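User: Run a structure prediction on this.
Assistant: Running it now.
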Amino acid sequence: MSVTVRIGTGDDIDALVEVYCSDNQEWYHFTPKGRSDKVSYSELSTLERTMQGGPWMDPKALTKYWGDIEKLGIITLVAELQGKIVGHLDVIVSDELPLGHFIYLDVLMVHRDHRRKGVASALIRQAEEIAREKKAKFMMVEPEQYEGPSGLTYRSCGFERAFESYNLEMLVDAETVPSEVCLISIPQNMKAPVKTHAMVCGWYNISAKTWHYGVNPDMDNLRFFSCHELALSAVTKDDVFFFHLQQDRFNHSAGSLVLWSPTSSVDSTELQTIFKAVKASASWLGIKKITTKTLERYVNLLKEAGWTETSKAQPYLTKVIS
């Protein structure tokens, strides 16, 4: 049986939900304190389903997310065997300082019953064709596990280990914004500053997608889980930084940070001042510890600015487009 790959549409939503749900053998209720009782899929609310794999786990949530797919220019690829959708891959045409123009492979899933049939490889090959069409320099992906099935799949398709990533943390010990920093809101219609700023903190996804959900969070989810977010500009005499703080949904004393720094001012001295402003903002939310994720190139810089490395995360893999 040969695998065919095409661009997905809104008509594929139910089939895509079936692909993603195939990987879940158990379902659970969720409360503001975390995972609760084991139940059947039909007993879960839309929000509880998304907590177990994102919008792909529920038709209503995926229909809503499809609007974000269109806004972000995400190319949704679907793989078919004998006319049945059995796999999916999200492809994002990206720009990111200092990486340049590339293709980011965001979400890959193959139906549980149709693995080891070349489905993932077919999707990745089609993504490579898109990369050539878009004149991207390379493709990039963060596998779920470098030594696990996802990492092995990408490496078998020619991807190589390229960027190491690390988890860091910083205690909140400041409640006052430094006088040399002015905090103001970020306009909700502002696009990610990928041409002028580097994402120094927060490598959970690429800037465009991280910015989209940070500046315009899903307020319904926030109300359900009683957690808070802040998206602010930190303005100094010479520069403007942007940051997004999010309180942990189940541990309100913890939070995560994404920060974009102007490429001309990525130095530890100025960052120390900016992080004091970040910590003051975190204290307003009741956050006592901030975590972040960054690339290897920024680790020493962040350590100098007061962060502590806690663990090594999964590496990013790339494949050069020839």
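The radius of gyration is 20 Å.
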